[in-house]
Amino acid sequence: MSEIPRTVATAARNLAIEGRSIDYIPSHQRHARLSDQGSFWFLGNFHFFTLSIGFVGPSIGLSALWTMLAGALGIMFGTLFMALHGSQGPALGLPQMIQSRAQFGYRGVLLPLLATLFVFMGFNVVNLTLIMAGLEQVFGADPAVVAIVMVAGGALLAIVGHDLMHRAFKWALCVTLPVYALVTVVVIAGMEQESVLPAMDLGFSWIGFATLFAISAGYNISYAPYVSDYSRYLPKNTSGPKLIAAVFVGASLSGSWMIGLGAWLAQQLNAVDALVALNLVGSSVMPGLGNLLVIVAVVGFWPVIALNTYSAMLTVLTGVDSIKKITPTPLARVLAILLISAILLCCVLQIHGDGIALLNTFLVLLLYFLVPWTAINLVDYFCVRKGRYAIVHFFTPQGIYGVWQFRGIVAYLVGFAAMVPFFNIVDITADQPLFIGAVAQLLDGVDIAWLVGLASSGLTYFLLSRMIDLRQEQQVIESLTPQEQRQ
């Protein structure tokens, strides 16, 4: 009988609106489990959006095999950065962007906040654009209705918060794993080829390989501002290496699988839409199965919409709090989520165009915006301050991290400026360059801007950080009472 009240209490906790947002998570509320992190981030990439990244390779002339290799290498490279950020969650108990006040200052953090808000909102815009186009082609569904339903469902999950979202990801994994396993088996067996157009004749190019590597790396680097938001409820003594390994294995396995599967679908089916491709594959096996696969894939994607909305909420509240101090109440969370959802809905109803082209351009742009920040944040955490921070000082402009930290701001701007000559932004549908930097032209369009950004931002910040008085900071940290550290 004792199990029944425990089960009821657990269910009630999972359905209760989360009380925390941008504030510190005290030890007695750290109820998350390390074992959940691998599956959570596996599903973070295990959906048709990642499948669509595999379409980019064939769209620029890269064969499925080379797309698989470039995608897998890029995903693993990007996941390494993502996993390193995740280890900060249990150590600090804070959302990622609150911790960035140490590098940019209480108000200076607005600079990377704008970049990360672009990522969170942009992902959902691209997500919904792909869903609307796919469901319209498969079922003739009204795109506006689809957008409203998907945004509302994502907002509801985000409002309830952390615990329900983790459970939703588990449920989604259970229903989508059989779908993508079936599609993979069908593609390997070649069962889908009888009713489709002839496969494309594709090959290898360094430009295509470098482009696919970059956008795959950028795709998982884009999780860097998210990941500690969902690991901050882990106990403080959680093993850093084990957490990094769980995040890395989960996200890289699913990402590599989906990109590889998307590449074969694009080459063998001439597919340009992930949901349409799923419908074709399912229908080749059994009448009506294709429609079922599409419905399950879309329903299983709802937690990802919520994930972006939730992190956008944390970013907005952090930005508002950096300008005018606020109390992070549940009401503030709900209002921020409703505002974000309304803006998101307006954006997706106004944007029209090719989903894969939008996806390619967006992933390239987000890499440019995020690379300087991730380099600065990781250098500070692992090489400069080595995980030692005064938690209470993140929440006041009078703290040791100040209002503006020129080191982080300068390093970000230096890294971004250094990347500009290496930019290579192309509209793949029209095969027209949107912007190609001078050095990128000399490299025949090979995009290494993100590597330049990582190196220049990280090195600049490391050199400037030599002026930080770490001994004085340590004295301040040691002088704080346990109660002050938990505020």
Question: What's the gist of this structure?
Answer:
Helix content is 70%, strand content 2%.
Unreliable residue stretches: 1-12, 194-198
Helix fraction bin: over 70%
CATH topology of the domain at 33-362: the name is Hydantoin permease
- By oligomeric state, this entry counts as single chain
Fold and architecture overview:
By secondary structure, this protein is mainly α. It has a domain at 33-362: Hydantoin permease. It is built from 23 helices and two strands. Strands 1-2 form a two-stranded antiparallel ribbon. Strand 1 and strand 2 (432-436) form a beta hairpin. The protein is globular, with a radius of gyration of 22 Å.
Write the layout of secondary structure elements.
Elements: H1 3-15, H2 35-45, H3 48-59, H4 64-86, H5 88-92, H6 96-99, H7 101-104, H8 110-139, H9 143-160, H10 162-189, H11 206-221, H12 224-227, H13 240-269, H14 274-285, H15 289-299, H16 302-323, H17 330-350, H18 355-384, H19 406-419, E1 424-427, E2 432-436, H20 438-442, H21 449-464, H22 470-479, H23 482-485
Antiparallel strand pairs: 1-2
Helix pairs in contact: 2-10, 2-13, 3-4, 3-11, 3-13, 3-18, 4-11, 4-13, 8-9, 8-14, 8-16, 8-17, 8-18, 9-16, 9-17, 10-13, 10-15, 10-16, 11-18, 14-15, 16-17, 18-19, 18-21, 19-21
